[in-house]
Design a protein that fits this description.
Order of helices and strands: EHHHEEEEHHHEEEEEEEEEEEEEHEEEEE
Radius of gyration: 27 Å
Number of helices: 7
Strand order of the largest sheet: 2-3-4-8-9-10-11-16-17-19-20-21-22-23
Helix content: 10-25%
Distance between the termini: 54 Å
Number of strands: 23
Strand content: over 45%
Length: 498
């Protein structure tokens, strides 16, 4: 069954950043140099960084990349440590660029290029497990949503079922009323005055004390970009380009929270709460850039990325199970609405980005490259602006997020047909409070071998970042766990010249 929920669920800064940040993915040559390609070009993933890169190609080229993502998450929840591993093997890049040379002597434009490329901007497969003892119960989540909700809305009336009332509340009173309903129907909360149908105050059936808690998180999906590229070489020293990008989001998330207590006089002894989220989105952005070659050995590049405008739809499902004690008997209650909540489509505007790049070439022996990027995450916005919840979240974004700098350094050394590569990257945290998310640091290594018109490249990249995750946003239950994420990325790219 479906419920077309009029109000929006709890979109948050976490959701906004999920679709506003990029991972270091792409071709093996690009990854092996930590993505420092803004002034170089001549690589399919470099086109995603600076659209003028396509005009650097000497011949038409196609490439396809197979990648392995391996992620380790180490959690600390009230001084209890856990570790999880997630791996994913996929084709994360495929593209082609066609080069059309102008053979006229002293022509103003020397070359025209047309490219098509698909890149996975960010692999969203993830998972972690946290466990520990807390003095803050999950009952606060339901109490926070229930206060102010009329009691007669949470009781089943004649002819109503769990599913029909859950659906009615979602369609007429929104996400918060559904959470209050789950809390009451599972006996976690009760009204202060049972005899008053207009009662709006609630109390908990979970006694104070110590709670053994476990939280499991798993997600799958990707944020990808399909690009139409146009490039041009002007005279001998200037390359221009533009990208027109179509963005695709496919994301699924499942969380489960389990709580158990042996507190004296606590009617509720166990709570199991599952939430599932499905997200589909599409969007558009553009990029404009140039690469200048003032000398044979020195190159400069500049790129501007417009904001991306996403149109996003979401659906959720929920269920909850509790174990309570009545008359010395344990009773299990399972509330399963079997309803898919469908939310109104909303718009997310991600921040634009500007990148400046320099590179120095040591003749045919190698090169070194440096990229600097700047992106202001406080400009992220949820739309439409007439939604009160979005206005509140946009204010939080403005106050919590900031502008961040990105630095990437890469180098390549050639020995005949063999190329050896390496790189470093640093990304500032988008948060003012770096305890919420720390800086990202990483390095990369790689090599390639040219067989003439065919080249095979391989790369390894590693990044580390720490963050703090709040289990449930916009609620009175504010428990968080710290997470240290280490991501290992291996890429194998086949390049074909024609």
């Amino acid at each position: 069954m479906l419920a077309f929920v009029q109000n929006f669920s709890a979109q948050s800064i976490v959701d906004a950043l999920r679709y506003s940040t990029d991972g270091l993915h792409g071709t093996a040559r690009f990854s092996g140099m930590s993505g420092a390609f803004g002034a170089l070009g001549g690589d399919m993933s470099a086109i995603q960084l600076n659209p003028a890169s396509s005009a650097v190609f000497l011949n038409s080229t196609a490439s396809v990349t197979l990648s392995l993502n391996d992620k380790k998450n180490e959690t600390n929840y009230f001084n209890t440590f856990n570790r999880n591993y997630n791996s994913d093997l996929s084709f994360n890049q495929a593209g082609v660029v066609f080069v059309f040379d102008n053979f006229e002597t002293d022509a103003f434009w020397r070359k025209f290029t047309l490219g098509l490329n698909f890149d996975v901007k960010k692999n969203l497969d993830d998972g972690y497990f946290a466990s520990g003892q807390s003095t803050n119960s999950l009952d606060n989540y339901f109490l926070g949503y229930a206060q102010g909700v009329r009691f007669n809305l949470l009781e089943l009336q004649s002819g109503e079922t769990i599913s029909s009332l859950y659906q009615f509340l979602g369609e007429n009173y929104g996400f918060g009323a559904q959470q209050a309903f789950l809390g009451y129907q599972s006996y976690i909360i009760d009204p202060v005055d049972f005899d008053n149908p207009n009662n709006t105050q609630y109390t908990s059936n979970v006694a104070p004390g110590i709670y053994n808690q476990e939280y499991g998180f798993s997600s799958s999906g990707y944020n990808a970009k399909a690009t139409l590229n146009i490039g041009m070489q002007i005279k001998d020293n200037l390359y221009l380009g533009a990208n027109f990008n179509s963005h695709i989001i496919e994301y699924r998330e499942s969380t489960f929270f389990y709580e158990q207590n042996t507190n004296a006089d606590s009617p509720i002894n166990e709570i199991g709460f599952r939430n599932n989220l499905g997200v589909l989105g599409d969007g558009f952005s553009a990029q404009f850039g140039f690469i200048s070659r003032p000398t044979d050995f020195f190159r400069v590049g500049v790129t501007y990325d417009t904001p991306a405008w996403y149109s996003i739809t979401e659906e959720t499902t929920q269920r909850i199970t509790t174990v309570r004690t009545e008359d010395n008997q344990q009773i299990t209650t399972s509330v399963r609405p079997n309803i898919i909540n469908l939310y109104e489509t909303y718009t997310l505007k991600t921040p634009g980005k500007i990148t400046g790049s320099v590179a120095y070439l040591f003749g045919a022996d190698g090169l070194i490259s440096l990229d600097y990027s700047y992106r202001d995450y406080s400009n992220i916005r949820f739309r439409p602006s007439g939604i009160a919840a979005f206005n509140t979240e946009n204010r939080k974004i403005s106050n919590s997020l900031k502008a961040a700098s990105f630095i990437r350094i890469g180098g390549e050394y050639r020995i005949d047909h063999l190329s050896l590569r390496g790189g470093l990257q640093f990304e500032e945290s988008p948060y003012n409070d770096t305890d919420m998310m720390g800086d990202l640091k990483g390095f990369s290594l790689g090599f390639g071998y040219s067989f003439g018109s065919f080249r095979l490249d391989m790369a390894y990249a590693r990044t580390e970042q720490q963050r703090r995750h709040q289990f449930y946003t916009n609620s009175a239950f504010t428990n968080t766990t710290s997470i240290k994420s280490t991501e290992n990325f291996v890429a194998l790219t086949a390049n074909f010249g024609f």
